[in-house]
Amino acid sequence: MSRTIAPPRQGAPATRIMGLGSYQPDRVVTNDELSQIMDTSDQWIRDRVGIIERRFAAPDETVVDMGVEAGSKALADAGLTASDVDTVIVATCTMPAPIPNAAAQTADRIGIKAVGAFDVNAACAGFCYALGMASDLVRGGTANRVLVVGAEKLTDVVDPVDRSTAIIFADGAGAAVVGPADTPGIGPVAWGSAGDLVDTIYMREHKYIYQEGQSVFRWATTQIAPVALDALALAGLEPSDVDVLVPHQANLRIVEAIAKRLRAKGAREDMVVADDIVYSGNTSSASIPMALDHMRAKGQVRSGDLALLVGFGAGLSYAGQVVLVP
Amino acid sequence: MSNEEILQGLAAIVEEVAGVDAADVTPEKAFVDDLDIDSLSMVEIAVQAEDKFGVKIPDDELANLKTVSDAVDYIVKNA
Fold first, then answer.
1. Does B68 touch chain A (CB under 8 A)?
2. Is the predicted ipTM greater than 0.85, yes or no?
3. The pLDDT value given to residue A310
4. Is the CATH code 3.40.50.2300 the one for domain B3-78?
């Protein structure tokens, strides 16, 4: 007797982002405050990384706490309730330990019971990786609606008096709900890695983030615009189609360099470029959904705008895709 | 390409990247101490110089290019 596995479940013809949400801790940390505990200044920080202020989580505030806040807001924005979601993915690289993961408890605390839940660690590229996976899960029929969260507490892994990192990294969360659509609202993901450059960003003595500033800057300012162009090509679009560019908010100078390269390839001068880092710092996997949510709240982007997302970071890893703003 | 042409090309890059007047980019000037160029701008200058002059300027070599003449000499030798 032959045993056969039933054919795959029928997936959705396309996917879209249904809602966005973000969360930042209450505590605002200014450059002047940091200048009191290390050798730096407001002007030095603005010149090097473009940050004016950032948010630090409270000592007892966790990655999951922040993810729950952002995820709940994204659900509400999508007009959905917890029972509408069947999969939760949390992109994070700052859980205090590898076990347990963030996704199962994040789901449970939002009230999403017994769903598929797992974490993705692609560092600052994590959100775009998770978004790509969520979209394919829905297209493949494994999931119907996926909550994708990027949540980070980088202050746990930063030497508080190291001026090369402590001025950059911050805490927060961003989230998006991915669901089925008749026409594509999320383009194919362009992703990849450069493991040969692993030594440029790592945890020194398993405690604090270290990065080779010049090497990472060179890589990000030269190798990431081509990834963004690949994402556009996979979606059958041209640089001139992009309304909003949302690179990972690593450093304002990297963001501007990527925008400049895309404009040299035909992106419009009036393309809106995310600069959320100025008041949020670098929040790793949270930065892209947080920036998009903030920009929409401020009216800088509107529902239906075509946004080009591109994340990049430790690994080194990178990923990008085109989405329609919900 | 002559040393003078390389100097002019480099000065144009420095002006574009760091906003330093090209006329101030003279051989004896130090990038950091005299022209006030930071480490990230040095990377941008190196990337553009690589494209313009067909050289490779890795980060560890970049660290040794203290003055404008250091950079011109490196490009002459490696182009």
1. no
2. yes
3. 98
4. no
